[in-house]
Amino acid sequence: MTGFHEVRFPDAIARGATGGPGYDTTVITTAAGFERRNANWALPRGRWDVGSGVRERADLETLIAFFRARQGRAYGFRFKDWTDYRATGAVLGFADGTQTTFQLVKTYASGPVEVVRDITKPVAGSVTVRADGAPVSGVTVDATTGLVTFTTPPAAGTAITADLEFDVPVRFDTDLMALALDSYARGSWQQIPILEIRP
Questions:
Q1: Each residue of 169-187: pLDDT tens digit?
Q2: Is 79 found in the same domain as 13?
């Protein structure tokens, strides 16, 4: 991923963010009121406003430095979505006896529908890989891609799962820092949009 800094947006500010996953759907309504819907995206793209997370002047100063370092929309960064940042027992796949690399994922299930999300920014040190339920050693986890690599291929039929925490790759969706100084001790930036970057 070009133009990306492997740094995390300040957690204290991210905790107060509003937003989440969004889709792009075209809805055509006929004169009789019937609808035809077309899902333009198979997977959602997250969007958040982190302006509500700025509570103190120190938060604002941290945010100013972070925004300048990312040069507005120029460089992406990691973001902790406090509403969805971990996976337990995530099924990465079943070994075929030769495969050594697996992608970290999280599966969302609702009724008969399952949506699989690739996790490309796991939190370093948070990943536990299991083979048929037993923790395994001899694996490396790339914290910048989410790829799990075994030194020796697991036996065919082995279920590979993982417990993990993860960040979302995002960027600012503005190049303008629209600051307002309410008082000497306090300032505000009302809307700070950030947008998920597709890997």
A1: 999 999 988 776 654 445 5
A2: yes
